[in-house]
Amino acid sequence: MSNSVLWYTTRGAGTVTLVLLTAVVVLGILSALRAQSANWPGFLTAGLHRNLALMTLVFLALHITTAVIDPFTNLGWAAALIPFASYYRTFWLGLGVIAFELLVAVVVTSLMRNVIGLRAWRAVHWLTYASWPIAVIHGFGTGTDSWSIWLIAITIVCAAAVGAAALYRLIAPSADPLAAPRTDFRAAVQKREL
Amino acid sequence: MQSQIPIQARAKARDAALRRLNRLTAGVAVGALAGVGGLAIVSAQTIPGTKTASSASSSTPSDTSTPATPDTTQAPAPATLQPSSGVSSSSSPAHVVTGGS
Q1: Rounded to two decimals, what is the model's pTM?
Q2: Which residues pair with B83 in a beta bridge?
Q3: Which residues, other chains included, contact A131 with Cβ-Cβ below 8 Å and sequence gap of 6+?
């Protein structure tokens, strides 16, 4: 396999990983809202969210592996696993490593949710909101295609999707049927404690 | 027996949703694989990397394999640069510009 093919694959896999990660973030936000309908039960959103998160890791592995084994760059595995260890574009590649490791932490803790408990899982899961923008910045800083029209268009669409989902989460009422009773209960408990 | 009908209906709906989940996951996987291929082709078309010819140099072509600081952001080749897929010159060393992401 020629160096160029590896290089093109690295760039293609990186972009696909960003799109998949965006889909994962959007589905995560929607599953937190418990959005569902007769044809789209809630567990479908959660299941797709989980499957796409695992798929994102697979394509991220492809992105990293093709970058590392490309003999021209000679990055080495340390640069792929240790933040800011790369001789080449140290800062931007370091951001990519951080985004990758945050994502691994989120996926691993999700798979171990029953072991670590809901509170710890949720705390780590919030890291996704850091992983996504760090990945975007890594792409713009490191990416060869940073100023290509097609990559800018894809990034704008991804940012719009995440922004719209986050905004919707902030303004939309919860679909949880027990949300109001829970809120009332918490308010009553706080009142008694005072 | 009557109370089992809604349960059966719900089980059918759940099975249908699971089948939909599997189809969606498979579809996204196929689409993502195609996306990698398609975007790799687009990447190759937009910034293919270059080989430069240096007529004054007397170094051997083996010097081109792993430069210390590859530059991945060079513009597509002007007149003095050629696409990476070809060999630039039989009498001049080639410098492949590739690497990074």
Answers
A1: 0.75
A2: B50
A3: A21, A99, A102, A103, A106
Among B89, B84, B99, B72, which residue's Cα sits nearest to residue B48? B84
* Calpha distance A144→B85 (Å, rounded): 18
**How high is the ipTM of this complex?**
0.80
Tens digits of per-residue pLDDT, A149-170? Answer: 999 999 999 999 999 999 988 8
Interface touch A88/B69, C-beta < 8 Å: yes
Minimum distance, in Å, between the CA of residue B24 and any CA atom of chain A: 8
Q: How far apart are CA B30 and CA A29, in angstroms?
A: 24
Residue in B18, B43, B66, B85 to test binding to A, most A beta-carbons within 10 Å? B43
Pairing of strands B81-83, B94-96: unpaired
Q: What is the pLDDT of residues A40-60, one digit of tens each?
A: 888 888 899 999 999 999 999
| A96–B101 CB contact, under 8 Å | yes
